[in-house]
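Need a sequence for this fold. Nothing fancy.
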């Protein structure tokens, strides 16, 4: 299955008791009609935006919104879900989702039609949607500004560094390029003031691109003061900033096809994992470099780095050891289930979620096996991809990996086993209560001989 569909979240939901079979109500109304209904019922308007390319992203959203716990959303929102590709969907995507590879999520509007909250993603856990709706409820009196509005506000008063900072943060939330503005913000602070930790924190918290003016002046003007400013922030904050630095630096490296910045970013990503072994750090570097070459469409070097990463890191991980760790983590989760609560005669369901690590390894193998399958027709490359798929299935038989394995089998001539694996992929999807139509179409084409290898 396509690498964009690589994550099929497996969430262990531990139910103690249930009230009734229910789910959030998705109306077929247009945005305008749904907004009128929300205004009449004094609720928020919740717009679920499906992905046009990531079927699994949509499938996990369906699971989360169709679950019993999601019923509570009906008291807070009127919900619509325009079909991907329709005029209404396109309008929402053009207005609220940038860049194009982030075209899915959930938007919350107040009764005046102002955007008050957004969630860039999908989840099979209903609690996730309930939490986002609760955040939107708290923010319904504070509409979100658009990047264009903040840009205009700052340009009308360039000395307004507060507006500039808001603009940078908003652009980053939209995953828009903001490094030139980060440098502008850093230049608004006198260079000789960077011995003050507060100024260092103000700049580094904007996650400047590695090697940029802002990055250099914050880190190198006074190393001792940088360390003081850095460690005054709590660990979650430091981790978030580091991840944002990596994302911004990687995006710029890809945009400018800057190998040096890509390599520097990969080294940084490995170095910040201070508790990782040298082998794990090397794995991070190889994985990130593979991602860079894939993004700049250098297929030959991408496959080389993918092979280095899988052979020198993934293949050294024991499936049995990961499964043991997962069992220990699951047992701990089971111990943390709260007691059943009964409020005014209603018995409420208590849940805990758990994502096994063996699923993550299976998904990683799927990424590289799928990429090689779609990028190369060389028999030796396809044989390598087959080995990776088989190895990944030893961790967990996730349906996306079963699908990839089936396609590889069919392409290399083992049609009987390919159909067997595709049937298993469909069954696994159905057992997880996820839509299986896409897999069923592939299975049908394999059975009637119309399947096109490489598709």
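Here you go.
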């Amino acid at each position: 299955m396509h690498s964009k569909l690589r994550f099929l979240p497996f969430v262990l939901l531990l139910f103690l008791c249930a009230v009734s079979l229910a789910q959030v109500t998705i109306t077929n109304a247009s945005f305008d009609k749904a907004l009128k209904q929300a205004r009449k019922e004094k609720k928020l308007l919740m717009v679920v935006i499906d992905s046009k390319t990531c079927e699994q992203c949509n499938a996990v959203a369906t699971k989360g919104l169709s679950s019993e716990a999601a019923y509570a959303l009906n008291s807070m929102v009127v919900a619509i879900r325009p079909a991907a590709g329709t005029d209404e969907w396109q309008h929402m995507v053009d207005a609220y989702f940038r860049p194009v590879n982030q075209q899915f999520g959930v938007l919350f509007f107040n009764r005046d039609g102002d955007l008050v909250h957004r969630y860039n993603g999908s989840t099979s856990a209903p609690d996730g949607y309930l939490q986002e709706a609760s955040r939107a409820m708290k923010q319904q009196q504070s509409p979100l500004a658009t990047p264009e509005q903040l840009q205009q506000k700052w340009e009308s008063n360039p000395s307004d560094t507060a507006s500039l900072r808001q603009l940078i943060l908003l652009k980053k939330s939209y995953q828009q390029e903001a490094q030139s503005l980060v440098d502008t913000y850093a230049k608004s602070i006198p260079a000789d003031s960077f011995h003050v930790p507060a100024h260092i924190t103000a700049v580094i918290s904007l996650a400047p691109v590695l090697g940029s003016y802002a990055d250099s002046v914050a880190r190198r003007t006074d190393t001792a003061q940088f360390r003081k400013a850095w460690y005054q922030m709590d660990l979650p904050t430091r981790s978030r900033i580091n991840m944002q630095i990596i994302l911004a630096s990687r995006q710029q490296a890809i945009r400018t096809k800057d190998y040096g910045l890509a390599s520097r970013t990969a080294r940084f990503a490995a170095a910040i994992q201070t508790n990782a072994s040298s082998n794990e750090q090397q794995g991070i570097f190889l994985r990130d470099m593979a991602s860079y070459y894939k993004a700049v469409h250098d297929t030959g070097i991408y496959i080389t780095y993918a092979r280095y990463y899988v052979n020198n890191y993934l293949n050294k991980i024991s499936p049995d050891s990961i499964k043991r760790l997962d069992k220990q983590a699951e047992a701990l989760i089971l111990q943390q289930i709260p007691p059943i609560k009964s409020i005014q005669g209603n018995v409420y369901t208590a849940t805990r979620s758990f994502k096994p690590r063996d699923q993550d390894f299976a998904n990683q193998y799927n990424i590289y096996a799928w990429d090689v399958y779609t990028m190369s027709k060389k028999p030796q490359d396809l044989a390598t991809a087959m080995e990776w798929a088989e190895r990944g299935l030893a961790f967990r038989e996730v349906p996306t990996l079963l699908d990839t394995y089936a396609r590889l089998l069919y392409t290399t001539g083992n049609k009987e086993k390919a159909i067997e694996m595709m049937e298993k992929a469909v069954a696994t999807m159905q057992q997880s209560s996820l839509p299986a139509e896409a897999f069923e179409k592939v299975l049908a084409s394999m059975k009637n001989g119309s399947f096109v290898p490489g598709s």
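For context: Residues 145-233 form one domain.
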